[in-house]
Write a structure and sequence with these properties.
Length: 100
């Protein structure tokens, strides 16, 4: 079980690297509309995360009223969207390398 978890964690880490490189590549070629679309996929889960208590967000980032701050919302949407892409890539890598 631990071996399976470690293998998937390695695949997820590789997925995060690839997702980050994909984001940098999209920014480099100026495809900001695709990045906006990617961020839309992270909006529902980011909105759910912003429902956490204000004390949590204040202790985490130090921004008062973080749920209403557009910069915090945008960054959280981007992080969630990249995590979703990384998870999809990790599932593909895991299936490719470890599932026989």
């Amino acid at each position: 079980m631990i071996r399976l978890l470690m293998q998937f964690s390695a695949c997820f880490a590789l997925g995060l690297v690839v997702a980050g490189l994909l984001l940098i590549g999209l920014m480099f070629v100026g495809q900001f509309s695709l990045i906006d679309g990617l961020m839309l996929t992270g909006k529902p889960l980011a909105s759910l995360g912003l429902l956490l208590p204000e004390a949590f967000w204040s202790a985490l980032i130090g921004v008062p009223d973080a749920a209403a701050n557009s910069h915090v919302q945008s960054f959280l949407q981007l992080c969630v969207a990249l995590a979703q892409v990384a998870l999809l890539l990790a599932l593909g890598f895991f299936r490719l390398w470890y599932v026989r």
